[in-house]
Write the structure tokens for this entry.
Amino acid sequence: MAIENDLIPVNTLGVQDEETGKWIPVDAVALRSHTDRLTIEEILDEFSSLNNQNSSLEQSIGNIEEIPTPGNSLSEKFSKEIGQLFSNPMWYGAKGDGVRDDSKALQNALNNKGNIYMPKGKYLIKSTLVVLGNTRIVFHPEAEIIRGASIYCSFTNGYPEDKFLAYEGNGNIEILGGIIDIKGNEIKSNGGGIVFGHARNITIEGVTIKNPYNIHHIEINACENVMINKCSFLGYYHSGTRAFSEAIQIDLAKSYEVFPVFGSYDGTVCKNITIKHCVFNNVGAGIGTHNPAEYTFHENINILYNTFTNLLHHGVSGLIFKNFRINGNSFLNCYRGIYLAWSYDGKMDNNVIKDSSNHGVLIRKTNKVTINNITVSRAKGVGISIYEDSGTININQAHIEYGKLLGINIDCNTTTVNNCIIKYNNDNGIYIHNSATNNKIFGGSIYGNGKHGILITDDANSNQIKDVRIFANNQLNVNAGNVIILKNASKNRFESNTVRIGDMDKKPLYGLFIAGTCTDNIVLINDMKNSGTSYSYQSDSTSTVTQAVNIL
């Protein structure tokens, strides 16, 4: 049997015929496949084209062998290069199906630090995720972290055994986008969203956090240089005694009870915190703290252009704030709009507070604060209440209207109310009392209030009312007047004001009345013509100083 039919000549370019099985040299017949017939010239043209493509690829990316990333092939090098740019939890086994526990896979990705990308999916976690320093987490808009067990928080930046000091913990962290659902409606144990401590340079932007239980959507404890921007805080559940818990808590490293995540407890406060363009809806309190500390302040706190709606407690709770700004915020149907205590050196501009179930603004033990262009409407408590050792509070161009109680309560010293409109509140427009001293009401209008326009009483002394238009008060028809000075109120000055009876249905009994127990009050250059149904001006005190230039 001849063997030449079974051999393939090694130096002959050819092809095996698919029908006969014989080897046919390419110079004798066209190459043949299932669909195309190619001559040797056409094959050489194809190889030439491929060589040109490889040359073009090499020109684009350089010599593949010169790419420093380890790897034997282009795909292997690219895979490792991308891995250096960011980590994807899917590479570590995350499923993102909302059923299987992805905690381990997510933590393995986070351990790489650098850039972490969270693809679209629902990531169930049953262990708290620890974010190390120099980490940037970028969420797909539909990537969601779901708390699936009784863990204290979803993200933190330290382990229980860590003992960081000051701001030297894991910092330089960014969390961008995504959703964190703490499932407080289902898991009835203390559970929050992001809890960071002892760090600097933290950015949280575009994140939606919802449904914590008893604690905070975000806690920033002993941190410096923090930006929280364009985030949403939705829903809150508690055991019945924690309505005051803030969606964003700004706190100090005071004790394990305050921060039960990691140490140390060195008393470090927060500095340079900015929270802006965020939405708070159906939560406990909005922003702040409920933990005071003696002679200690969180410094440079900026709360800007946020919206607070349907809160169980304060919109902003500014305890131990120093050098702070609370500007451009909107508060609707909150327990209180803004609460300040033990705070110093602040400014609050262009805030709008409507339908508070308690006071609009409550200030106690606080000094050196300026409030500009605030609107407080339909508060069920006092519009603005200032008391308990507060001082140097300046209120400019406020509108306080339609409240159930007082417009402004002043139980303190050195408050100035300048060019404000206080109208249609059910109680007194302004109430100065309890030995309040050296307060000033300058300019503006006070009218249509249910009781007195201004009541100065209970040993209040050395207060000044000047250039104010006061009219049409006593709208509850309770024998009230436009301005009343009672009960040992002394050395108060009433000057250059315009007082009128007004044209509303109910009329004030007095333009200005001073009781006989009051001494050394001064009444100068006022226009009080036709300002009360009983008297335009009546002083029962023999020591009142008046001048004939008062118009009566």
